[in-house]
Model the fold of this input.
Amino acid sequence: MDAGQAFAPVLRSGDIVLLTGALGAGKTTFAKGVAKGLGVTERVTSPTFTMVREHHCANAQGIATLHHCDVYRVETLDEVVDLALGELVEESAVALVEWGELAASVFGRDVMTVDFVVDDEDGRTLVVDGELASQRAGELDRWAGR
Ligand SMILES: Nc1ncnc2c1ncn2[C@@H]1O[C@H](COP(=O)(O)OP(=O)(O)OP(=O)(O)O)[C@@H](O)[C@H]1O
Ligand SMILES: [Mg+2]
Done:
């Protein structure tokens, strides 16, 4: 959760971040941290069954809304297209999408991917990639403590 909270300053309005990794790898935990870092005060729970939850944010970055999605259970890509996340994030918002790789074609190239890898000792390695990640290299380095 701390990693997620520290990640929040990397985000800007309009960003879509795909959270990928095995079942239980820590995607929701990270999203809770990001929410905290963006000034969400309500409880953040897994959107596995609702597909998307919307949280009001209060922060100096001007991000007013966090859309927290989970596309694990979607049956067709149309369901993800219908969410219109690309349009939603244009309104001072960002989106985190758990299992986003399952619908990567819907989001196109201009996204960031955070992949959660569980190691032998139950630790986590976070691997960040994507077009948006290259644009935020400086912020990401700061996050990674480089
Ligand atoms: N960085 C971490 N280090 C150790 N344990 C963690 C870490 N992040 C999450 N966990 C633990 O892993 C479990 C599953 O976490 P979480 O629900 O965030 O995973 P998830 O990737 O969202 O799962 P799902 O694929 O079901 O959506 C929780 O019990 C959580 O406490
Ligand atoms: Mg989850």
